[in-house]
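ARCHIVE RECORD
Type: protein–small molecule complex
Small molecule: zinc ion
Source of inputs: curated submission
Record status: active
Notes field left blank by submitter.
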Amino acid sequence: MEDSIKKVAGYIAAAKHVVALTGAGISVESGIPPFRGKGGLWEKFDPMEVAHIDSFMKNPEKVWRLLISAMKDLLVSAKPNAAHLGLARLEELGLLKTVITQNIDGLHQMAGNTDVVEFHGNFAWLRCLDCGSREQTVEVELSQMPPKCECGGIFRPECVFFGETIPPKELDRSQIAASTCDLMLVVGTSAVVQPAAFMPVIAKQSGATVIEINPEPTPLTGTTSTILVQGKAGKAMREITAEVERILADKRQL
Ligand code: NAD
Ligand code: ZN
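STRUCTURE (tokenized, with ligand):
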């Protein structure tokens, strides 16, 4: 990992416009389980089935209980980890411009990134299926499942379920970010959920260097990405950011 950290830091320090694409893996060290991989929710049930819009519409109580309740406490108490903070620092240094995240946990904003595209929405807000009114999740009584609006309608979270399309605004902003960056950092995503996994392909086709940070190789590895920093996001991002700062400090002294 040492060698790849130095190499990646060199690429980042030399870049003009860095964009990050993040997935559930970046929040694992904040205590939120991913879908796939070791310790993932997949080991307990199939998220493709449970987190599908058809399952939610058919049996909202079941989906709320299984999936959303499992995540709820974690989402409310989770704090950004070294990987989120590293990306926020890269923005402060003027290198990172946009984070495209598949996560619904809000941890990038909490870490301090200001341009975050929430590709799959978020869990911070709920929307009534009947009257469309929106409420902040923390303001809603969640002891009753499924939670209900004043009108009696059932609330859904404002995240994108499997089987739903990506909101056009988020898709547009992501495509623009992917096609204008000169370096894309892909952190903690299995790169199998489309169309999010296509963003690194757009970046590569537009001439950017694509770098992955993940304990496991993904379908992008060696095809779309040129370097895989194989390890946990927290340690990798902490070391990469420190090295970038060292390179920039050296440059200033020249
Ligand atoms: P995924 O669950 O499919 O894959 C997780 C990836 O993270 C794997 O490739 C795994 O090797 C990697 N990983 C595990 N631990 C890691 C660590 N410490 N550091 C870096 N990488 C690590 O996740 P996905 O690709 O984001 O796709 C799943 C979908 O589920 C997404 O749409 C996402 O919105 C949603 N989801 C979100 C959250 C969240 O908001 N935190 C959590 C679970 C699932
Ligand atoms: Zn309502």
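CURATOR ANNOTATION: The mean pLDDT is 93.
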